[in-house]
Design a protein that fits this description.
The chain is α/β, with parallel strands linked by helices. The protein is built from four helices and eight strands; from the N terminus they run E-H-E-E-E-H-H-E-H-E-E-E.
Length: about 190
């Protein structure tokens, strides 16, 4: 792969055997998708997992222009978790390429198709504590691409994106009935 592969571990020693195994397996993804700019592999071991089959976790993230693909799998061995995560990533790549090759649908804006329904904010009982801050690069996309990215990333609740059609930041969310809504923030 022409892209650099970053391997990170948590509660796990990165042996030469494991490093070589992961590197050679991830390198083979190039034949499925060659537009990858960044590849990150996170391997971890959780001693307190409820099941012994969930102790090793392999998470694979591929970033490219206009897409982020992520897969995560758990198993009783780190090698099995890596294999399962790679299989899941191959399926996501095929799905991503298939959607991109077929086009963007009928051109309707998702906000026109579905009814806007904003969830009511809940009152916090205690002082909220922010435990993590996350930065990421936004690629302009339309609403249908945002729905597809939300599915590909495995996000079930919401997805933040830059709407290429309106030049605004939007929040796509999944409603209880399975449809989608879009929040369009305005500074007031």
């Amino acid at each position: 792969m022409t892209v650099k592969i970053d391997i990170f571990t948590k509660n796990l020693e990165l042996t030469d055997r494991l490093h070589d195994y992961v590197f050679t397996k991830v390198e083979k993804l190039e034949k499925f998708l060659d537009e990858v700019d960044e590849c990150r592999v996170d391997l971890s071991h959780t001693k307190t997992a409820r099941s012994a089959e969930d102790r090793y976790v392999a998470q694979l993230t591929l970033r490219g222009k206009g897409f982020i693909l992520r897969s995560e799998e758990r198993s009783d061995s780190i090698f099995a978790a890596v294999d399962a995560s790679l299989d899941k990533m191959r399926r996501q790549i095929r799905r991503f390429k298939g959607k991109r090759d077929r086009g963007r649908g009928d051109g309707q804006v998702i906000a026109d198709v579905i009814e806007m329904d904003f969830p009511e904010p809940e009152e916090p009982e205690e002082e909220p504590m922010i435990v993590r801050r996350k930065r990421f690069t936004l690629a302009p996309m339309d609403e249908l691409e945002a729905v597809e990215q939300m599915k590909l990333l495995g996000h079930e609740n919401f997805f933040v994106f830059y709407n290429a059609n309106t030049s605004e930041f939007n929040v796509l969310y999944r409603r209880r009935d399975g449809t989608y809504g879009i929040i369009i923030p305005e500074i007031g």
